[in-house]
Specification:
This protein is mostly helical. The chain has helices at 7-10, 14-38, 42-50, 55-83, 87-93, 100-109, 114-139. The chain has a single domain, classed as MetI-like fold (Orthogonal Bundle). It contains seven helices and no strands. The longest helix has 29 residues, at 55-83. The radius of gyration is 20 Å and the shape is flat. The mean pLDDT is 86.
Length: 145
């Protein structure tokens, strides 16, 4: 593309992997954030400015606490698919960029080390389930389970 950046210097780097993961999983973060911020009563933000809070203080005292459920759910919705993603790291980062999903995949297919791959899969799954349960308990949405 216009030869502005040499493609050989960008590919097979951690920057390429981070850019690819960000491009793929940004909507999983943006949608819960948008829904959470959209629910905030704008009169509260207006009241913070009426009480002489500058925009930064108003953000951290009003907007941030009220949008925190969206931040946490967006983080979970982003982390769960990104934890098992190995295609981005394999295609954009080359064989030297390893992620948990890629390690599990190579243990299953290349090394035929099924016990270690299964153990890593279980550890990853338990970590994800614990994170979801902590979120459900703190958010008070136990009835969804």
């Amino acid at each position: 593309l216009l030869n502005i950046i040499d493609s050989d210097r960008l590919l097979v780097t951690p920057v390429a992997v981070i850019a690819g993961l960000t491009y793929n999983f940004l909507p999983f973060m943006v949608l819960p954030l948008y829904a959470s911020i959209d629910k905030i009563d704008h009169r509260l933000i207006e009241a913070s400015s009426d009480l002489y809070a500058n925009p930064v203080v108003g953000f951290f005292k009003v907007t941030w606490p009220l949008s925190l459920p969206g931040v946490i759910s967006g983080t979970l919705l982003t982390f769960i698919p990104a934890a098992g993603d190995y295609i981005n790291a394999q295609l954009l980062g080359g064989p030297n960029q390893r992620m948990v999903g890629g390690v599990i995949q190579s243990l299953f297919t290349d090394a035929n080390d099924y016990p270690t791959a299964a153990a890593l899969s279980m550890i990853l799954m338990i970590l994800i389930v614990v994170m979801v349960l902590v979120y459900v308990r703190r958010a008070g949405t136990e009835e969804l389970l």
